[in-house]
Every structure is written in structure tokens, then in C-alpha cells.
Amino acid sequence: MSVMIAGRPVGPGCPVYVIAEIGLNHNGDVEVAKQLIDVAADAGVDAVKFQKRTPELATPPHMRDVVRETPWGAMTYLEYRHRVELDREQYIEIGDHAMLRGLTWFASPWDEPSVAFLEALNVAAYKVASASVTDLALLRTIAGTGRPVILSTGMSTLEQIDAAVAALDADERLIVLHATSTYPMPASEANLRMIPVLAARYPDVPVGYSGHEPGLQISLAAVALGATAIERHITLDRAMWGSDQAASLEPRGLERLVRDVRVIEEALGDGIKRVQPGELAPMAKLRRVRA
What we know:
The chain is of the alpha/beta class. It has one domain (3-286): Aldolase class I (TIM Barrel, Alpha-Beta Barrel), CATH 3.20.20.70. Helix content is 37%, strand content 19%. It has helices at residues 30-43, 55-58, 77-84, 88-100, 112-120, 136-143, 158-168, 194-201, 217-224, 251-268, 280-286; strands spanning 3-5, 8-10, 17-23, 47-52, 67-70, 73-76, 104-109, 126-128, 149-152, 174-179, 207-211, 229-233. The strands form 3 sheets. It has an 8-stranded parallel sheet. Strands 1-2 form a two-stranded antiparallel ribbon. A two-stranded antiparallel sheet has the order 5-6. Helix 1 runs parallel beside helix 10 (251-268), helix 6 runs parallel beside helix 7 and helix 9 packs parallel to helix 10. The radius of gyration is 20 Å and the shape is globular. 40% of the residues are buried. It comes from Microcella alkalica. Keywords: Transferase. This is N-acetylneuraminate synthase.
């Protein structure tokens, strides 16, 4: 079973779908967002993803008045959330830039008004953040759009994932990503063997991996284990301000990731044993007994 996103099939037997998660790493700056889109396009990814919130709804009440230091001075967490949100015109600008660079773009809505906001922009798909797995009302709203859905599964039990999959009710439009929501994530928490477990649990749903580790090895191992999509945060510089920057790939790292993903998916082959063309000459030279 494959899922179509803007005309691109995602699933077993298809090229791995590589998503560059810009998220909030633009820090509310459209020019930084466009630079990150350029980084993603130059690396050869398939899509870029953002995050959309209605700050008053998406910010937990106990966090709203917490004061934090930011590059724009001390402000409450709610004020910070407003500061980094992009408005409709800004999304149109970055969406146009992504399309001009040949990339699909979409976002993670964190609340129901954000779904309406993104619907008005005709996004290609929706991504459900791990934090939203248990928000079944939000999931049903997303399902109601009829668009493809990518579901991350960090900080969730299998029972919670089952409930989310049922609420989305979108087997022919659903992609599930194994994830661990630690930033940055140590190898000991990756638990990549969950990829085949999820694939067996949801046999008609493509399964991929959303990574928050600092390097490349774990994401590449996920491809070897059958991940049909890979999502990684990207940044211009891991030293930039922001909670996701340290768990993100810089431009050179993203280029290497895409390069190595393509090598691995080619190397996996089809699982049918045959004599390869390159073996014919060695076989003629080295095999003493003919079959």
C-alpha cells in the first residue's frame, strides 16, 4: 500500500520520502525560513514541514506565564509563541518559495483553528506531532479534510497509537512514523525495532521514522529496517537559538543523509536471489564445478 502526497507515492517499493522539518527553526523570520527551504532543496529532499499553532490554544496553561530569556528579551512562553508564529501572508511567501524550489510543503497543526488556517492554504498533507497523538478531536478534524496524514508516535503507547489511527480513519491516506521525543535523542532510546513492529501492526500503512538524534547513523539504520519515510529537523547552524536546533541537521549533514539514504535503498534490492551481472566474470574465472 502506498500513499500519494502531491503526486509522489510513499510506501514499500517506493523511494524513501525525505522530509526536512523546519518547524520553528526559522525563529519567526521569513528570510531564515526561505534559506532553510533552499538548504532542503539543494540536498534533494522531497518535502519541507513547518508547525502551526494558535498560541492561546496550543500552549499548555501551566506554561503560558513562564518567563524565558529569548533573543528578543525576556518574555512569557505565550508571548514567545506569538513571536515565532508566521501569519497567512508569510506562509504564502514561504509556500511559494518551496514550490519554486520543487518541494512539497505542509505543516503540523497543533489545534483545530490551525487546521482551518492550513486548509485555506491548500496544503498537500498534514503531519500529526507526537504531542498531539492523544488529541482525538484534533485528529478527527484533520481526518475530515481528506488529505494525506503523517502520524508521529513519540511519547505514546501502542494503545494510544491504535486510538489515533482509529480516529484518523485514513488507512489509504495514512503514514505512521516511529519516533522518540527526546531532544536530542541518545542511541539507547531509538528502539528502531519498533519499525517492523509497527509495520506488522498496521500492514496496510507505510511506516517511517522521525529522528531527533544528532547524527546520521540511526536514521540510515531506520531505512535499512524498512522505513519508507524519514523526517529530520534542519537548521542553518546548531548554535542558533531555539529548543530544536541542537537536534537538527546542518546543511552538510542533510546532504549526506539524502545521499546515503539513496545508496541504502538501492542496495536493499528486491530480496530475490539471482546471479548479478557483476558476478558473471568472477564466476567464469573462479568456479571450478559447474552446476
